[in-house]
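FORM 7B: Structural annotation worksheet

SECTION A. Query
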Amino acid sequence: MSGTLFVVATPIGNLADLSNRAKDVLAQVDVIAAEDTRHTGRLLSHLMLRKPLFALHDHNESEAANTLLDRLERGDDIALVSDAGTPLVSDPGYRLVTAAHDRGITVCPVPGPSAAIAALSAAGLASDRFTFEGFLPARTAARKQRLASLATESRTLVFFESRHRITASLVDMIDAFGGDRRACIARELTKLHEQVVRATLTNLVDALQRGDIDARGEFVLVVEGCRETTDSAYDHDRLLTALATRLPAKEAARLAADITGERRNALYARLLELTPSK
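SECTION B. Predicted structure
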């Protein structure tokens, strides 16, 4: 019989957040597939465990997955971990898990810490419907385009962001969503210098620039969804579609912005969704 691939969530900061079940699984498997073996080695040392480690990261996943799958088919049990949090959530492992399912290998989740869910739970924003967007593009133009496409999204938005781009991303969000959109910065979650601050996007930028929010560390951004009503959205869609039958897309979006008061970039992105052939 083949072994089991355990997908194990590990702490995002506070080592006490590792569950007893996760520790038991790490102690019992034959090998641990880790994004960074040095990082996972320190966790194992804290747990007083000695286990073979196998590197599986973005640059070797295709090749490494085949080796791990062969071991699974021979009966080995394997734990997949990332540097922190739940594997596959903006971390490697997708190819391995997909291939394991394709080969009929049992995949077993061992749930636990997740920075995205932890931030959402503390943000004070609607959590009944949300969308996880991971990291925004590093390049300014691509980031602005992605945010413009999300401007009319009614679900709460959850992003990861690096300290190098946190302020720039917030400024781009103001351009796409408006400065009065509510949001939450969750920084260094579960760590010594944790901060969770909810304010408008404009006020969050001000707080970063004043130093009230430290620009160092790891960030999760939770952003309120568009508060536009369904009827309003429907009217905008009808207006955009009607204008697009007579004008080029950019001109249609510009005129619709003048009429509705909505942002041109957001309307243009919505028009492309409504008329993808335009």
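SECTION C. Observations
The beta strands are 4-8, 31-34, 53-55, 78-81, 106-110, 130-135, 156-161, 182-187, 195-200, 219-223. The chain is about 45% helix and 20% strand.

SECTION D. Sign-off
Analyst initials: ____
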